[in-house]
């Protein structure tokens, strides 16, 4: 069994890390960041995002060369993990061939590790496939590596076999972690994993459930409850197959994206008791004092998984009308979100995305920004996205949903602290939220900043100042 872990993922931080060479972090910064996460914060895994970002494909070599003393003590591929997130060719056509390049780098990284450790210890042995919708997509990546990356070593080149000339390609196969992001994929996650595992002999299977993009697509409440249903069904699949299944959940700092902050660790552990790995994003790591971060990391590591709880079917009848209201309100806000997003600072160098709702997201024919800028834009306007769609629900329905989404009222209270009632003057459909807001305390400084932004004073400085008050950018 692998221990309960944390994996670092996307940036959602307010402040620039001390080691960054510029406000927008690039490949060299992320090599240092990986070492910092491993050596100082006690995080056991770094997700290396080839899907959409300009990252360093020689990261393993650089980590060994620069920080050899550390990695001699804590072995990469054993105590520590480096896990690439690769493009999904079924969706990201422009990035499709990058999948080949990423997989080709795995045996090369194993060669560096063989020289460094003097043993067969591949530092990379699994990859994350985003936007997974079928077992066929997973099998394609699995077979591509097995037959066309590692398997080609037995092909003859002129008078000699490739492995005799270039050296052995190791590992001989890799694990593929599905990342489920759409509603349909999340709700069918267990079935997809079952089909993928058919005929394979593996020690365990990891499964990644998104939180940010489902929240963008369907609203906060739906995103939480869809993931919780998937977690319960994956637990049932684990029992059926007699094979450990270790869920990963992609949580960010805002309640809309998971609410994993050092202050809220206990609540997140209660919300997702069966999750094995929580992604720790940049606001968690860099927007708090290091001692607080280290304590929070230790708390997650020392916790133990518990059973997932079922989600009754009646929940989904309520979610239908919630999602309808959410999507209606979002369409009306989309033009303003796009305008404000231009002023939200980027924290990583990213490539152009074309793909699933949430990467190049379409609303009325127009794309919306990625999850961090989306969330930051709405908060900067005084419209926390957690509150969209909420007015469709009665108090009784909220109470019922709160029995299964344990942190619902806490997350709503947090969001109302940063709601600006003035938005109802511009968007009348938000008047019910303005009425509800009277029952909650609000942050006056954040209110002042969002009022200036609503009045047209758009600037990155104001957006970052408001983010500092909240404790996260998006």
Automatic annotation (TrEMBL):
Record flagged with keyword Cell membrane: no
Enzyme Commission no: 4.1.1.31
Taxonomic lineage from the root: Archaea, Methanobacteriati, Methanobacteriota, Thermococci, Thermococcales
Catalytic activity reported: oxaloacetate + phosphate = phosphoenolpyruvate + hydrogencarbonate
InterPro entries named in the record: PEP_COase_arc-type (IPR007566), Pyrv/PenolPyrv_kinase-like_dom (IPR015813)
Statement: the UniProt record of this protein carries the keyword Repeat: no
Pfam families: PEPcase_2
Function comment: Catalyzes the irreversible beta-carboxylation of phosphoenolpyruvate (PEP) to form oxaloacetate (OAA), a four-carbon dicarboxylic acid source for the tricarboxylic acid cycle.
Subunit structure: Homotetramer.
Cofactor requirements of the protein: Mg(2+)
GO molecular function, one term: phosphoenolpyruvate carboxylase activity
Entry's family note: Belongs to the PEPCase type 2 family.
Protein name: Phosphoenolpyruvate carboxylase
Single GO BP term: tricarboxylic acid cycle
Keyword annotations from UniProtKB, A to Z: Carbon dioxide fixation, Lyase, Magnesium, Pyruvate
């Amino acid at each position: 069994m692998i221990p309960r872990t944390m994996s670092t993922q996307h940036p959602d931080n307010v402040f620039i890390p001390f080691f960054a060479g510029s406000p927008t972090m690039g490949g060299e910064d992320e090599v240092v960041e990986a070492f910092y996460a491993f050596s100082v914060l006690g995080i056991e895994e770094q997700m290396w995002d080839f899907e959409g970002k300009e990252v360093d494909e020689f990261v393993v070599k650089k980590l060994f060369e620069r920080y050899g003393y550390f990695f001699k003590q804590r072995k990469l591929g054993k105590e520590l993990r480096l896990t690439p997130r690769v493009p999904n060719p079924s969706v990201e056509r422009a990035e499709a061939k990058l999948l080949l390049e990423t997989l080709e780098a795995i045996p090369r990284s194993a060669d560096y590790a063989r020289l460094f450790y003097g043993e067969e210890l591949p530092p990379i042995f699994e990859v994350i496939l985003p936007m997974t919708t079928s077992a066929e997509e997973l099998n394609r990546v699995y077979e591509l590596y097995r037959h066309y990356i590692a398997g080609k070593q037995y092909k003859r080149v002129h008078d000699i076999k490739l492995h005799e000339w270039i050296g052995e390609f190791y590992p001989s196969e890799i694990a593929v972690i599905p990342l489920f992001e759409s509603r349909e994929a999340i709700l069918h996650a267990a079935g997809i994993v079952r089909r993928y595992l058919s005929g394979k002999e593996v020690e365990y299977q990891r499964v990644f459930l998104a939180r940010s993009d489902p929240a963008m697509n369907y609203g906060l409440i739906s995103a939480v409850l869809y993931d919780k249903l998937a977690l319960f069904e994956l637990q049932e699949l684990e029992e059926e197959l007699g094979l450990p299944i270790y869920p990963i959940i992609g949580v960010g700092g805002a309640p809309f994206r998971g609410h994993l902050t050092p202050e809220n660790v206990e609540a997140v552990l209660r919300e997702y008791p069966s999750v094995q790995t929580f992604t720790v994003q940049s606001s968690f790591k860099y927007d708090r004092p290091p001692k607080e971060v280290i304590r929070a990391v230790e708390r997650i590591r020392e916790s133990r998984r518990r059973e997932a709880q079922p989600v009754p079917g009646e929940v989904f009848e309520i979610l239908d009308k919630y999602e309808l209201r959410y999507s209606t309100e979002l369409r009306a806000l989309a033009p303003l979100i796009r305008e404000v997003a231009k002023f939200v600072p980027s924290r990583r160098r990213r490539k152009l995305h074309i793909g699933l709702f949430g990467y190049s997201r379409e609303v009325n024919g127009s794309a919306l920004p990625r999850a961090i800028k989306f969330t930051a834009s709405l908060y900067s306007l005084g419209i926390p996205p957690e509150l969209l769609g909420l007015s469709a629900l009665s108090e009784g329905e909220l109470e019922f949903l709160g029995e299964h989404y344990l942190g619902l009222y806490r997350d709503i209270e947090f969001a109302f602290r940063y709601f600006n009632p003035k938005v109802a003057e511009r968007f009348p459909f938000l008047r019910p939220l303005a009425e509800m807001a009277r029952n909650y305390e609000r942050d006056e400084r954040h209110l002042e900043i969002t009022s200036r932004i609503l009045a047209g004073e758009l600037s990155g400085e104001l957006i970052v100042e408001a983010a500092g008050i909240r404790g996260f950018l998006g």
